[in-house]
Amino acid sequence: MTDKNLPDGALRLDLAFPYRVYRPGNRTSECLFLLHGSGVDETTLLQLAREIAPRAVLVAVRGRIAQDDGFRWFARITPTRFDQQSIRAETDAFAGFVTDAAARHELDLSSTTFLGYSNGANLVSSLMLLHPGLVERAALLRPMPVLDDVPATDLAKAKVLIIAGATDLVYAPFAPVLVTLLSRHGAEVDARIVASGHEFGDTDAAIVRQWLAASTVQG
Predict the structure, then answer these.
(1) What is the pLDDT of residues 91-145, one digit of tens each?
(2) How many other C-beta atoms can be found within 10 angstroms of the C-beta atom of residue 76?
(3) Are 53 and 112 in contact (CB under 8 A)?
(4) How many domains does the chain have?
(5) How far apart are CA 39 and CA 198, in angstroms?
(6) How many angstroms separate the CA atoms of 160 and 71, rounded?
(7) Quick one: angle between helices 175-184 and 119-130, nearest 10?
């Protein structure tokens, strides 16, 4: 069996990052790229994504940096400081992956939302800043800014949802900094706070679902 004909949801190794593609029988043109948090794998956001967009094609991607029994997206120095060379190298590689995956699986990036959690959300924000135009919609759960040097970037076509946890004492204080950073580069940012810590749940799913519905109507 060739990789192209693998069963729905099978692990694929034909591109730069390991990934799985899920195509619902009643799917629409909508697509979600899923970027997990640190120390886990690509399957951890599937339930959340299905609550958000049950008819969307899901592309669940695995980070390439090993951590504990799972994976992450780039190397860290401390919980809030990160290896800048690793960020840029992995972000560049992921940009190529997105383009290749879209071509191989006939995905419309204009109908695609990048759903990232924690370390995965930080990779998405870096992707937006380093490769402007690739991401038009992003939902970032529990993110923080990670780039030390941000290039001049036009994000006027990007819509971003940022959800911080009210009791996420380590990362929530950084969320307003990311809101300001993306807004200053032209992105349309919707910032929310939910009554939780660093974990995500049904409230996040409801907020993202409503935000996506509104952003789709607005075009």
Answers:
(1) 999 999 999 999 999 999 999 999 999 999 999 999 999 999 999 999 999 999 9
(2) 19
(3) no
(4) 1
(5) 14
(6) 25
(7) 20
